[in-house]
Design goal:
The protein is built from 15 helices and twelve strands. It starts with a helix and ends with a helix.
Length: 472
């Protein structure tokens, strides 16, 4: 631009000199002009030389604002929205520079708003419990949040720009995306994921709106827990139905036998009436346990925490079961471990604690053919640990994680023979958790089991011990 203006100004000067000479010749001063030719050419050369500097300065003054505008545009293209152009000169250039600076400020504001919205959107998508993946028409990943990476087992950052199938290879996933991009409309698929871990996913695929070329958005939801809960619900219904059906079948058969004539036989009548009473009691126990478990799980059962002495609670429970234990030849012991204060207390609901201990001691008596059952307790700085240990059959290692499930039995035939409902340990777990405690089990097959309960200590007891320690 500069050189074009510079040469244009020089050409204008040369043309002006030539035009003067042409006019002189045309007016009849040919002889005079020929005589002065040397002087004319010398004067023209001087004029051209003297015109170079003004032409240069004039061209530079004219092109400098344009050069500044060009540099500003380059800085803007590079993303530098802080750069402003300062132009001196004609009013037109100053106005153009101000307009350019105003455009730069508006662009900077728009980009900041766009970046804020983008970061906000990424934060929202990153915090979602669903996985979100955006792909283009070539199935290249445009965006993937962290949950999508965890569910589909790939790195979201490294997956951007790659074809989705290079990041995760699942045939059912690819079929759903292909169907959506082919114009099949939104797709919904249930996926049984065969990856590093077994899980179930629900996949939704829909086309990107107003996209040209088209792309799609994948939303992935982890339904593993829902499937597990549905299985538990089905198992629970099946177990309840079976547990209720068994005593009803025995009652019905006993009644039918009595109707058929056994009622006239005093010996047979007593046996069948006793069976009816036993089965009715069994059914009543099952229903009561179900109602108790339902109240605990729904938080309808109201607990009233109070200061409960551990020594009294344990020995009272053992006394309730001593007669039945001694009838089986079992010994019941309650032992406070060394350095345990005699007035050790816990902050729990008294009836809830009694129900927990009753269930554990009752189970120990049922599954201990011979030997002893020992309840121990000890204090920690902020909790009390109560252990109920037996020398009975023990629990296989594979079954230990599931013994607190409803209706789960290690030996189903033996449990039903002993009259268990399969709900005792489930009730114990929920009661302990409702009273802010924890329960665990250690066991070895053939060597007995130990159930360990940890409960919060009584607040007043803990405070008194802290005062005593500071005084000492």
């Amino acid at each position: 631009m500069f050189w074009r203006l510079f040469l244009s100004f020089l050409a204008l000067v040369v043309c002006s000199v030539g035009l003067v000479g042409f006019v002189v010749l045309r007016n009849g001063a040919h002889d005079l002009f020929v005589g002065l030719a040397g002087e004319v050419f010398l004067a023209g050369g001087v004029i051209v030389v003297l015109s170079i500097l003004p032409a240069y300065l004039l061209a530079r003054r004219f092109t400098k604002p344009l050069t500044d505008l060009t540099r500003g545009a380059d800085r803007l293209a590079e993303g530098d929205f802080t750069h402003h152009i300062h132009v001196a000169g004609s009013r037109e250039f100053v106005t153009l520079a101000r307009t350019f600076n105003g455009m730069t400020d508006r662009l900077a504001t728009a980009f900041r708003r766009s970046e804020h919205d983008r970061q906000q959107l990424r934060t929202i998508l990153s915090g979602m419990v669903e996985g979100v993946v955006a792909i283009d028409d070539k199935q290249r990943v445009l965006f993937a949040n962290e949950m999508a990476g965890r569910l589909l087992e790939f790195d979201p950052e490294s997956a951007v720009g790659r074809v989705l199938w290079e990041a995760t290879r699942q045939r059912s996933l690819r079929e759903a995306v292909d169907a959506a991009l082919a114009g099949g409309g939104p797709q919904r698929r249930e996926l049984a994921w065969n990856g590093a871990s077994e899980k179930f996913l629900t996949l939704y695929v829909s086309l990107l709106p107003n996209a040209d070329p088209s792309g799609a958005v994948l939303v992935v939801h982890d339904t593993t827990d829902l499937r597990r809960l549905e299985r538990l619900r089905q198992d629970f219904v099946a177990n309840v139905s079976h547990e209720l059906k068994t005593p009803l079948a025995n009652i019905k058969s006993s009644v039918e036998t009595l109707i058929d004539g056994a009622v006239e036989d005093p010996a047979a009548r007593g046996m069948f009436l006793g069976e009816i009473a036993d089965q009715a009691n069994r059914q009543q126990m099952l229903i009561e346990d179900l109602l108790s478990l339902a109240r605990i799980e729904s938080a309808e059962q109201r607990f009233q925490p109070e200061r409960v002495l551990v020594d009294d609670a344990v020995h009272t429970c053992l006394d309730r079961h001593r007669t039945r234990a001694e009838a089986k030849g079992l010994t019941l012991n309650g032992v406070a471990l060394a350095d345990t204060p005699p007035d050790l207390a816990i902050w729990v609901d008294e009836e809830g604690l009694a129900q927990v201990l009753d269930n554990l001691v009752d189970n120990a008596i049922k599954y201990t053919p011979a030997g002893r059952i020992t309840a121990r307790w000890r204090a920690t700085p902020d909790a009390v640990v109560i252990e109920v240990e037996d020398s009975g059959l023990g629990i296989p290692l594979a079954d230990q994680p599931r013994i607190f499930e409803r209706f789960y039995r290690v030996d189903k035939a033996r449990s039903r023979e002993m009259g268990g409902t399969g709900l005792g340990l489930a009730i114990v777990k929920h009661l302990v958790q409702a009273m802010k405690g924890t329960i665990s089990v250690t066991s070895e097959l053939g060597s007995g089991s130990k159930f360990i309960i940890t409960m919060p200590r009584c607040q007043c007891e803990t405070a008194r011990e802290a005062v005593s320690t500071r005084a000492a």
